[in-house]
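Hey team,

Sharing the Aquaporin-3 run so nobody has to redo it. Sequence (248 residues) first:
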Amino acid sequence: MGSASFLKRAQALLRIRNQLARECLAELLAVFVLILITLSGSAQMVTSFGTRGNLLSAYLAGALAVMVAVYTAGGVSGAHLNPAFSLSMCLLEQFPWWKFPIFLAVQTSGSFIAAGATYALYYDAIWHYSNGTLTTSGPRETASIFATYPSDYLSLANGFLDQVIGTGLLILGILAIMDTRNKGVPKGLEPVVVALLVFSIEISMGSNCGCPMNPARDFGPRLFTYVAGWGAEVFRWVEGRGRGGGWQ
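Structure output:
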């Protein structure tokens, strides 16, 4: 009885009643889960020299991560996960504008923290693979584990177009899935269908830049690599950098 009473008191103290705080914490956790799984799929592929993963497995990890993240926070924050989606909801008057900068900060923070967790998880593997040097280019570069970089043939204009089309298709697909006037997705399976949408975009439009359709997913981990020792080169567009390694 005493133990049960203590647990009830603890739950009462820890319960968050403010709706905005609940939404922010849910969004933070969901983005953390999304990016942790996504980056870990990339890290496993890169640091194992492709023996324990390839682009297809990494893309699949990213798509399934979307599914897990939506299930994690969908009932609390709506599981936006992506500033581009939050902005779209604002433009469609389905999300208040004053919440947008808050969600943007939360989503970016979740991505940054997840990048740190991935770095800690694969710390030994990254340093072994890179021969003790954190670089953004060359045969042993590791920056593309965390952020997306253009293929060596890609121009800035073509890269911009790639992102506009990829992100636009993602938002269009999600809005179509959510539209109750369309043929409905069985209740509870919406995250699965969104994951399939993400996967279809990844395997069809990933070669140019790696499909970084989520600004928070790209900027948060990129900022982490800058802080963690890869240097300011992570923010520069450099031809020949190579791999491209990002998802949604």
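DSSP finds nine helices and no strands in the chain.

Ping me if you want the raw files.
A.
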